Amino acid sequence: MYGLLWRALPGPAWLRVLILLVLAAAVVAACFEWVFPWVSEYVPMNDNTVEASTP
Amino acid sequence: MTRRGGPPGHARAHTRRGAGSTVVGVVGELFITAGVLLGLFVVWQLWWTDVQADRVHQQVLADLDWAEPPVQDAGPDVAPERHDEPPVLAEPPEGEVFAKLYVPRFGADYVEPIAQGVDKATILDRLGIGHYPGTAMPGDLGNFATAGHRTTYGKPYHQVADLKEGDPLVVRTEKTWYVYRVTSHEIVYPWEVDVISPVPGLQPGDEIPELTDRLLTMTACHPMYSAAQRYIIHGELDYWAPAKKGVPAELLDAGILTDASGPAGDGKVA
């Protein structure tokens, strides 16, 4: 899978490493900004209120 | 020589790439990716949410722009204790930051905003401490009930279990200080809503008796990093003081606001 990605990238090795680092940073940023906040709604590990209705 | 012995060089690399091993390789890479993502989620939850929320809390507090108590050469005046009927704000609209909380036990630099509402995404994960709508406002008869994160998202109630009986909990609204003192703590299940009723112990639907006490309640998760139970702190109003008269002695003694000259000093300098 990642081997395929490596072969699909153009340029010399250092350029491919650079592209991969940028891609990894983009994935992490997307996770922190959108994916994890959405996921955390379904992970009730830090609820702190008392509520009348328990589903 | 059998094929398993392995021809050298190119041919060996070629035989390794059978369909089966390719599938195994992809599955392995997916597992590794999932592991990395789970690790990142933990980093985000335990570290980044604090970074983000702390930034917002500081901004929210700075935006309040309330007049600071008067400061003399020797430091701020000590606010006079008043035990008569305190002024009580009307409940603000959802999301409005109407108070801030100082707790000497939580450290000299501890101050957190209190906003109306206990919605997780918009209030507790973002603005700080939330006020249960419909419960008393600071200083009022009944129960001023609040919720805060004990871990993550700025964790305003992180040290809630360190509170001892008698510790001051100081609520500041724009015009007034309300000094509560811790009376008790308890650990309850999330559905035990009677902890925030006007008289703790009163079940929903029970007739509300004539109120005589001015209480405060803090709810936070328990155990830490779990949502199984809730850690509850109960407190009672000790006294109130007008904010324009000075700073409560409890804060000054703890080294809080001792240099509060205020932004461009509404406080007069002697």
TrEMBL record, chain A:
<keyword id="KW-0812">Transmembrane</keyword>
<keyword id="KW-1133">Transmembrane helix</keyword>
<protein>
    <recommendedName>
        <fullName>DUF4175 domain-containing protein</fullName>
    </recommendedName>
</protein>
<keyword id="KW-0472">Membrane</keyword>
<feature type="transmembrane region" description="Helical">
    <location>
        <begin position="13"/>
        <end position="36"/>
    </location>
</feature>
From TrEMBL, chain B:
<dbReference type="InterPro" id="IPR005754">
    <property type="entry name" value="Sortase"/>
</dbReference>
<keyword id="KW-1133">Transmembrane helix</keyword>
<keyword id="KW-0472">Membrane</keyword>
<keyword id="KW-0812">Transmembrane</keyword>
<feature type="region of interest" description="Disordered">
    <location>
        <begin position="67"/>
        <end position="90"/>
    </location>
</feature>
<feature type="transmembrane region" description="Helical">
    <location>
        <begin position="21"/>
        <end position="48"/>
    </location>
</feature>
<dbReference type="Pfam" id="PF04203">
    <property type="entry name" value="Sortase"/>
</dbReference>
<dbReference type="InterPro" id="IPR053465">
    <property type="entry name" value="Sortase_Class_E"/>
</dbReference>
<dbReference type="InterPro" id="IPR042003">
    <property type="entry name" value="Sortase_E"/>
</dbReference>
<keyword id="KW-0378">Hydrolase</keyword>
<dbReference type="InterPro" id="IPR023365">
    <property type="entry name" value="Sortase_dom-sf"/>
</dbReference>
<protein>
    <submittedName>
        <fullName>Class E sortase</fullName>
    </submittedName>
</protein>
